[in-house]
Amino acid sequence: MDRSLNAHIKKAPTDSKWVWFEGATALLEGQGVCFNWDYGTPTAFDGRRGNRVELPTILNARYFAGVAARKYSAKANGQFIEIYCPGSSCNVLSKASTTIGVGRLTCEAGGTYAGYFRYEGFEGEGSCVPLQTVNNGTTAGKCMAILEQGPPSGLVESVSITTAGGAIVCMVGGVTYFPANVLTDANATFTLADGVLHGQKKGFATTGDQTTNNIVITVTSGLQDDGATGFGTWTTDTALEEVYFKWHGIGTGGLWVEEMHVGGTIG
Questions:
Q1: Does the domain formed by 159-266 have CATH 1.20.5?
Q2: CATH topology assigned to domain 16-147
């Protein structure tokens, strides 16, 4: 692909395309979108799966398309929009304090901040490196960044838990963040299903304390980082505890192999 800049030298290099945004909501400049990868009849070839986009969710998080090139007002029946694709240097919609060239921000799936960049996830499509020092920690705003290329990052999500605890729903890939909660009645629980692609990554991290009860992650098929001991559960109740896995397996069978953990209890 020719990425030569046919413009003034001060213009940032971008790779843009026009796509159909299916949502009825407004979009802000730099807000991320994902392809509607399963559009149409599953058994039929349909090129629209590569040019129709929607806000990021836990169901399309592996199919990051890019970020809105500018602000778009709401249209009840959807609209054509221009997006900047991975590899572009452009504005992203961030809700974080950034320092030029430091760290990573990843597009968020689902919730109030769908399409925003406020937490760090895995490297690859859907993540970016800030190219601007700016304080958007309190109020979301634009931040110049380079959109990373490579395998899908899987995006990030923030899962709020009710005080009652019980079973919760999390993405299979990407990074799941847990804000502070008071679990008055029971533990919050999630079972990580087997992966589907060799090299797929999954992470869990707490951004706030969980009081009274805990969050318990059960791994269906797991191996601790010693390479010999099975990985059954990870229990967390304190801010800044985290665990990360990588799926090893092609075809049937495989294991989530622990890459590292900080805090929490492995069972």
A1: no
A2: Virus Head Decoration Protein; Chain: A, (2.40.300)
pTM over 0.85: yes
Distance CA 241, CA 263 (A): 5
Token digits for 14? Answer: 């971008």
Mean pLDDT of 148-163: 95
Q: What is the domain partition of the chain in residue ranges? A: 16-147, 159-266
CA proximity to 142, closest of 211, 69, 45, 65: 69
pLDDT tens profile 227-244: 999 999 999 999 999 999
The answer for residues whose C-beta is within 8 angstroms of residue 234's C-beta and 6 or more apart is 204, 216, 217, 219, 243, 261, 264, 265, 266, 267
Alpha-carbon distance of 66 to 30, in angstroms, equals 9
CA-closest candidate to residue 92, choices 45, 156, 136: 136
pLDDT digits (tens, 9 = 90+) for 56-99: 999 999 999 999 999 999 999 999 999 999 999 999 999 999 99
Phi–psi pair at 50, nearest 5 degrees: -105, 5
Least Cα distance to 122 among 64, 198, 203 occurs for 203
Residue 118 carries which side chain, given as an amino acid letter? R
Q: Which amino acid is at 142?
A: K
Helix locations, the chain, DSSP H:
none
CB 138, CB 185: distance < 8 Å: no
